[in-house]
Write the structure tokens for this entry.
Amino acid sequence: MESKFDVASVRKQFPILEQKVYGQPLVYLDNAATTQKPRSVVKRIEDAYFGQNANVHRAVHLLSQQATEAHEAARVEVQHFINAAESDEIIFTRGTTESINLVAFSFGEAFCREGDEILISSMEHHSNIVPWQMLCERKKMHLKVIPIDDNGCLLFDEYAKLLSPKVKLLAITHVSNVLGVENPLRQMIELAHSQGIPVLVDGAQAVAHMSVDVQALDADFYAFSSHKIFGPTGVGVLYAKRNLLEQMPPYQGGGEMIDQVHFEKTTYNKIPFKFEAGTPDFIGTAALAEALRFVEEIGLDKIAEHEKQLLDYALEKLNQVKGFQLIGKIPERHAIVPFLLKGIHSYDVGLLLDKLGIAVRTGSHCAQPLLERLGMDTCVRASFAFYNTTEDIDRLQAALNRIGNMFN
Ligand code: PMP
């Protein structure tokens, strides 16, 4: 069973997938942690360093102009990719983590006071917990947490009850990095906005798997990382509505973010540059744009369909493995299968899978409070991208059967 999607030709664009690990062809199922890079992205990096390398926004010479054009074109590419209203609403950061820290600091400075509350959910990645805890500590505020049910689904009624004039921001993940569950963002944002509360969405696990439209969602902030969508590491995106950005103070000081600097007083640049102190990773942004073009050429609809088929196939096959315990019965899952093998520690499962050429993730997946809530401290996570195949799943199934037999 393979979809019409031509996975074989797509895989040819990812040389890393051709390698062997411990003598076995690599099966890469750790895509939620980071994705592999197509040839066009790596070529873009090489072309930029060998043909276009000069600092952006500063010099009049040709190389600098070309680098600046590529960097600003990348901003427009990102704008279109998530359907932002204008490219000035796209800020380049180092990743989702930095994007969230930027908002926690700058939004916190502009809008938060002692006694205020920030609302998050029980299924957040540490990056969408700790920056808010730091803000709460700094400003003597309170962090409130939306509970989930035993399957890991958010309790909407409990969410509604937690909204109040004290809540200054809702920060919520689009898709859980452990469970793959998608939150009902449209309804959540509508309800928050009806009470004047802005919403930050952590899109790290969503952008590579579904088409995201920040205007349709009406998200106030949307954060994601390049490396999780086939782009280079070290680059991230923060989308934010213009009116909020204009009211927020800069996050870091330095070059690029200024208008005039005098020892008596400094004035700041306009957005987005006000939030981009120092030399940006302009080669990384150009390569991210290349990755987004790669994804768009395949089409997110086709990607989502292929990944849905893979997920269904995986659940069917893995449920046949003795002792396989899927975590969370979730109606709509995205590209992630979290599980335990009865009686075998997750680390042993991960280590043995590795020896059989299969890369999965084990541990608490930077979401300790979620695992605690679900009554476990570790689990195994297999996560897919569009280059995965049903053969990958067959290999995983066979390997889990073998590990089960070894232990029993
Ligand atoms: N949020 C979620 C949901 C994630 O999955 C991750 C990465 N595992 C992050 C935030 C942090 O992303 P990064 O490390 O690229 O900043």
